Amino acid sequence: MKLRPMTNADETAVLTLNAASVEQLSPLGPDRLDWLRLIAAHAAVVEVEGEVAAFVLTFAPGAAHDSLDFQWFVDTYSDRFLHLDRIVVAENYRRQGIATTIYRAVERAAKPFDRLVCRVQSDPPDIASLAFHAGRDFVEVGKLRRPDGTTSAMLTKELTD
After folding, report:
1. Is 80 exceeded by the pLDDT of residue 19?
2. Alpha-carbon distance 118 to 83, whole Å?
3. What does the pLDDT look like over 115-153, one tens digit per residue?
4. pLDDT, tens digit, for every residue of 24-48?
5. What is the pLDDT of residue 139?
């Protein structure tokens, strides 16, 4: 397993992974992915035996990110957070420690910001993701009603030494 920066060659795999989880995320096309990679604090993939098994995008305060989630966190925490915008692990690679590896790396990168934040769909609930985040000491700090009628739990993990 290798965590590495996302490259142009990863585009098809990343878009395919996002499409498989679009119910919990938002749609992502090539132009949007290029834009997000450009403004991201981190755009990385996990490679397993030459195959992209997962990807992650994070954003720091001040990024030109236009998501409702990001704006909610800006309004709530100003500039003291790193936003984990999306993480996707391919279904056939789940429960193998890939997400844990990614979160450990992202949490280390987020230490200068004091907290790592993300959103998880709560209505209808993404039970596996809510449980995973609870197990990593994330706590719910609010709710965000989305234009599509779903509700997201806004989560934070304070990072201390």
Report:
1. yes
2. 6
3. 999 999 899 898 989 999 999 999 999 999 989 888 999
4. 788 899 999 999 999 999 999 999 9
5. 97
Measured CA to CA, the distance from residue 28 to residue 31 in angstroms comes to: 8
Q: Which residues pair with 42 in a beta bridge?
A: 58
The H or E element spanning position 102 is helix 98-110
Whether pTM exceeds 0.85: yes
130 phi and psi, to 5 degrees? -60, -45
Rounded to the nearest 10°, the torsion over CA 96, 97, 102, 105 is: -150
Return the structure tokens found at 63: 């990024």
Cα 96 to chain centroid distance, Å, stands at: 18
Spatial CA neighbour of 153 closest among 128, 118, 127: 118
- Could you tell me the two tokens for 125? 């609930």
What does the alpha-carbon distance between residue 44 and residue 40 come to, in Å, rounded to a whole number? 10
- The kind and range of the H/E element at 156 are strand 151-158
**How far is residue 76 from each of residues 34, 66, 138, 155, measured CA to CA in Å?**
27, 16, 16, 12
